[in-house]
Amino acid sequence: MNRVFIKTYGCQMNERDSDAVAAMLRERGYAIVDSEAEADIILLNTCSVREQAEQKAIGKAGRLLKARRLGLNAAAMTTGDSATPPPPGAPPLRLVGVIGCMAQNRGAALLDSLPDLDLVAGTQKFHRVPDHLDNLLAGLRALGPRPASIVDTEGEPGSQNTISAHSSHRAVSAFVSIMQGCDMNCTYCIVPKTRGRERARPMDEIVDEVRALAERGTKEVVLLGQLVNHYGLREFPTVDGKSPFVQLLEKINALDGIERIRFTSPHPAGFRADLVDCYRRLPKLCEDIHLPVQSGSDRILRAMRRTYTRERYLRIVEALRAANPAMRFSTDIIVGFPGETDADFEETLSLFDAVRFDMAFIFKYSPRSGTPAESLGDTVPREIKELRNQILLGRLETFSNASHRALVGTVREVLVECPSRKGNGLFMGRDRGGRKVLFPGTSGDVGRLLNIHVEKATTTVLMGTVA
Ligand code: SF4
Hints:
Elements: E1 3-8, H1 12-27, E2 31-32, E3 41-46, H2 51-69, E4 95-100, H3 101-106, H4 110-113, E5 119-121, H5 129-141, E6 150-152, E7 173-177, E8 179-180, H6 191-195, E9 199-200, H7 203-215, E10 220-224, H8 244-253, E11 260-264, H9 273-281, E12 288-290, H10 298-304, H11 310-323, E13 328-335, H12 342-355, E14 359-364, H13 382-405, E15 411-419, E16 426-430, E17 436-440, E18 449-457, E19 461-466
Parallel strand pairs: 1-2, 1-3, 3-4, 4-5, 5-6, 7-10, 10-11, 12-13, 13-14, 17-19
Antiparallel strand pairs: 8-9, 15-16, 15-18, 16-17, 18-19
């Protein structure tokens, strides 16, 4: 039996791609295993957003290939200790592949540092992975030299339509990839290079996929795209003032069995009144918005090529709060972008205070080779970046604590996802705002919408009992 372990780095798009590859491999007769120790084939689905993420994956691939050269199992190398014997019965490692963003970004150059890597498959080639593994295994079975490495990173029209199969995981809540690529070219970002131009999947195919998920018991879908609210702008017409993305939301909202809809990540530039209005009209659309702002300074937004102003961003937030006062906001922020002054950072801080984000991913800027901002250097000292990072993290803790505490004593509608990792008979679900809720439950609760009376709150989680 060919046993494949897929290790995923990076974002939810990557998670979704890995799940689709797993489903395609299963269909082809491969077994998908949960740990490296059980696998004889390991695929690393990689992230290129930061140089560090690429180095981490290259280091991992190097250790796996060394394990194979020594005739060891992958698990023997996880600590980097080549003297560790493989666990009893563990299969020797046969194939190692790198797929996804780093494969796309570096292509055949990966073989310079990892010459015995078997497979390099880019972001438009996930659906080719089963064929490539079949061919590599056939080469291994033939007597003779090791089969040559396969490098497959060409663009492929229609490849966005191939990310549609689901493995059996995440049954209650499922990611659905609706488009690929990004035409925005923010100066700090490598994604346009790794994911290519915006390409939308046909609306009916997405609706069919969600309907099939609902038939399998999925209650919530999270629509994914690098620029999710730009879905189909090039491919499909606006109808009655509604963008293709709004039309898609309406169709999914009408599907029986689906209780909740979320999406990530939208861009403020395409967040128009028709989309805001969905929060009044579509009852399944959750009041949970991740809206990356990156900076509160117009000067820095321009340098980042973000194509909106702080005022426009704040107007969107205001309109969304007017549509639904319970709206929960999260965001991405970069501190220390080249040229960011104290005054620029003050602008970010005042925007952060105005929105009172519940959740935020705060990144300290580091130059990314291959991006337009690389030429701007790295002008903000490390200590200043760290200070700005800490100030924002402090604010975030204050806001998320306050908003969680305000929910103690209320009843939240919770979609139950799984047993809590902490055990103790606790189960984990999420309210409509996406907040994690823990409560004592049973396995029969998974997949149900329950009303939970909130009794305690921390910065990250609400705790309660069934009301
Ligand atoms: S919108 Fe900007 S940050 Fe987001 S993926 Fe596109 S280029 Fe990158």
